[in-house]
Design goal:
- The chain is α/β, with parallel strands linked by helices.
- It folds into 2 domains: about 160 residues, Medium-chain alcohol dehydrogenases, catalytic domain (Quinone Oxidoreductase, Chain A, domain 1, Alpha-Beta Complex); about 130 residues, NAD(P)-binding Rossmann-like Domain (Rossmann fold), CATH 3.40.50.720.
- Helices cover about 25% and strands about 25% of the residues.
- The strands form 4 sheets. Strands 5, 7, 8, 9, 10, 17 and 18 form a 7-stranded mixed β-sheet that branches.
- Helix 3 crosses helix 4.
- The structure holds NADP nicotinamide-adenine-dinucleotide phosphate.
């Protein structure tokens, strides 16, 4: 406040803050802090700032928190967590005429805002996202459902459509059919006309039956490789011994296994004459757009198992890690 000649001048400095979910070290859920005073991120060229309505939770979020990728992708602390989101475009960065943004303020979008994809972290009230990591939100889904779709939907799409080339009347075994990726993969495989076997816990039997699974195997009581033979493809979202045992379920000399967790095992590949692929999910605008069209045209469901408010991101990540959702866990951020 400056006092002049009978006048009072008041300088108001307006700094906008937002809430975000941050970590300043790797560890378990107690390293998560809700930061109320994070500066609002402002978009540079090729980026948008989105108001986050909902943010999807994936196993990779707690793996990042625990430092599983610290060598491959070291974080600069403090770091805002979160990858998947659905929301509304608030601001757009400078537009490069060679690479138009194709989005305007108010557009409903979904996709990724992770630090590793050039974003600022999706577990926040506002986030920056690279224009190539987002697309128009599927119209038939709520923001809650759309927030649960990007990573799991694109993973299923890359596996079944791009890697396996699954076609009508082929047989596919999907491990972890009740999980985020598995529940999308069952719906996609049925849409492609395949016969679908899946491994789940007994409690998830009805859920995957409603998604369209033809043969359901209780992985805690039954050995799938004694039930399933001569399948064309396996989609493995579990890894470990499940991956190794899967070679026995495939047609010798012609089958393919795509794994979200395991690098190709050359010994098993040559023993069984099977093609094996490790899938690294890459979410981009083209895949998100195709996914949204498929969802809208075919009444595809994203099952929300449980929602948590942004303030309870620590509990949401623990739930994802320890309880395993039937479908997806989503953080609600704004209405
Ligand atoms: N490579 C990549 O780029 C990439 C991308 C995305 C995800 N991933 C990885 O892919 C995996 C799956 O992701 P997600 O989002 O689908 O996870 P999720 O939602 O936690 O689902 C995992 C499912 O697997 C089931 N499961 C556990 N052990 C099983 C077994 N032995 N046999 C059959 N089912 C079993 C769980 O059921 P229960 O509740 O019965 O245990 C759960 O339904 C995660 O490890 C994730 O990190 C990798």
């Amino acid at each position: 406040m400056i006092k002049g000649t009978g006048q009072v001048l008041i300088f108001l400095i307006s700094i906008d803050f937002m809430k975000s979910v941050q970590i300043s070290e790797y560890g378990s859920s107690d390293v998560i802090k809700i930061e109320e005073n994070s500066p609002m991120p402002s978009p540079s060229t090729g980026k948008i700032q989105a108001k986050i309505i909902a943010a999807g939770v994936n196993p990779v979020d707690w793996k990042i928190r625990e430092g599983h990728f610290r060598e491959m992708m070291p974080l600069q602390f403090p770091a805002t967590l979160g990858i998947d989101f659905s929301g509304v475009v608030e601001q757009i960065g400078e537009v490069n005429s060679d690479a138009p943004l194709d989005f305007k303020q108010g557009d409903e979008v979904y996709g990724q805002a992770s630090i590793s994809s050039g974003g600022s972290g999706a577990f926040a009230e506002l986030a920056l996202a690279n224009k190539d990591s987002i697309a128009d939100k599927p119209k038939s889904l709520s923001h809650l459902q759309a927030a649960g779709l990007p990573l799991v939907g694109v993973s299923a799409w890359q596996a079944l459509v791009e890697n396996i080339g699954l076609s009508k009347d082929q047989k596919i075994l999907i491990h972890g059919g009740a999980g985020g990726i598995g529940s999308m993969a069952i719906q996609l495989a049925k849409h492609l006309g395949a016969y679908v076997g899946t491994t789940v816990s007994i409690n998830d039997k009805q859920f995957v039956q409603e998604l369209g699974a033809d043969q359901i195997i209780d992985y805690k009581k039954e050995n799938f490789e004694e039930i399933v033979h001569d399948y064309d493809a396996v989609f493995d979202t579990v890894g470990g011994e499940t991956y190794k045992r899967s070679f026995r379920a495939l047609a010798k000399g012609s089958g393919i296994i795509v794994s979200m967790l395991e690098q190709p095992n050359s010994e098993l590949m040559s023993q069984y004459g099977i093609k094996a692929v490790f899938l690294f999910s890459q979410v981009n605008r083209q895949r998100l757009t195709k996914l949204a069209q498929w969802v809208d045209q075919n009444n595809i469901k994203v099952n929300i198992d449980k929602t948590f408010p942004l303030d309870e991101a620590d509990k949401a990540l623990d739930y994802q890690k320890d309880v395993h959702p039937r479908g997806k866990v989503v953080l609600t951020v704004a209405s």
